[in-house]
Specification:
Shape: globular
Strand order of the largest sheet: 1-2-4-3-5-6-7-8
CATH superfamily of the largest domain: Alpha/Beta hydrolase fold, catalytic domain
CATH topology of the largest domain: Rossmann fold
Distance between the termini: 27 Å
CATH class of the largest domain: Alpha Beta
Number of helices: 10
Largest sheet: 8 strands, mixed
Structural class: alpha/beta
Oligomer: single chain
Number of domains: 2
CATH architecture of the largest domain: 3-Layer(aba) Sandwich
Amino acid sequence: MDKSHEQKSAAAYLYPPIEPYERRMLEVGQGHTLYVEESGNPAGQPVVVLHGGPGGGSSPMMRRFFDPEHYRIVLFDQRGCGRSRPHASVEANTTQHLIHDIEAIRRTLGIGRWIVFGGSWGATLALAYAQAHPAPVAWLVLRGVFMGTKAELDWFYGGGAGRFYPELWSRFAEAIPVAERGDLIGAYRQRLFSGNFSQETRFARLWSDWENALATVETRFYHETPVDYARAFARLENHYFSHDCFFDRDGQLLSDLWRMNGVRGTIVQGQFDMICPPVTAWTLHRAWPGSSLRMVPMAGHALSEPGITAELVAIMDGFRHSQLMTR
């Protein structure tokens, strides 16, 4: 990796912007229709990108981590967010539904095996998908690892991260009456699903702004998140976190690593990630014999961190001459 990445922007490492050669709306059942796009080389090595959140949606920037002459790049918006419909809906929206959707996309596109590339919640979903369907997974590329555990949620919504940024935390926590602050996820849930659009919007912005403010090493301030994005992002995250990410037990992804049946992967983790602390990536790496861990110094959580970007592009470039698809 280029050691001067601290002085460069993330864009300096990315491939030039490209447009999809195919867009479609895919019906996956229970009233949900997903936005799915393909870009790059139609005959290339397939890679599917799992965005974060839940509820973050995909973005054009995500196409640029991959050499478009080599990769067939599949992006989609998960249920309830981005261009998928219905927007901000939590009905029939669970981890198991999303795993089903990934397989539906793979089969619809006629793909046999693919690289699964996911960050934050996308890393959670990538691991859950690989444990349910190991055969199609040629490699996992995970960034900013989140395992959906109670300890991780307590860290970010119980005041752990707030101890480092008390001013930012106070805006998030003090919007809730003192009597309810022992369970901020539950308190926000009442307001995000109140049926009062004005209240839902206000608390969606507070929820989204708290996370966005801590996403990078250098940016530690609130900015006003667009209403449509914030409402879907906050409602979906809160829905999943209120239900333990729809896992049967705490720590399930770690205890069920054996289900991945030989799947290998690379983990990229920011050393100063305040949203998903590095200990989670380290614990996963220690328990997963088929993994390698790349800890990025002076980097936080965001996909747009220069050091994170540089590592991910280098990893994907390195696969261009591999035999992943034939293993």
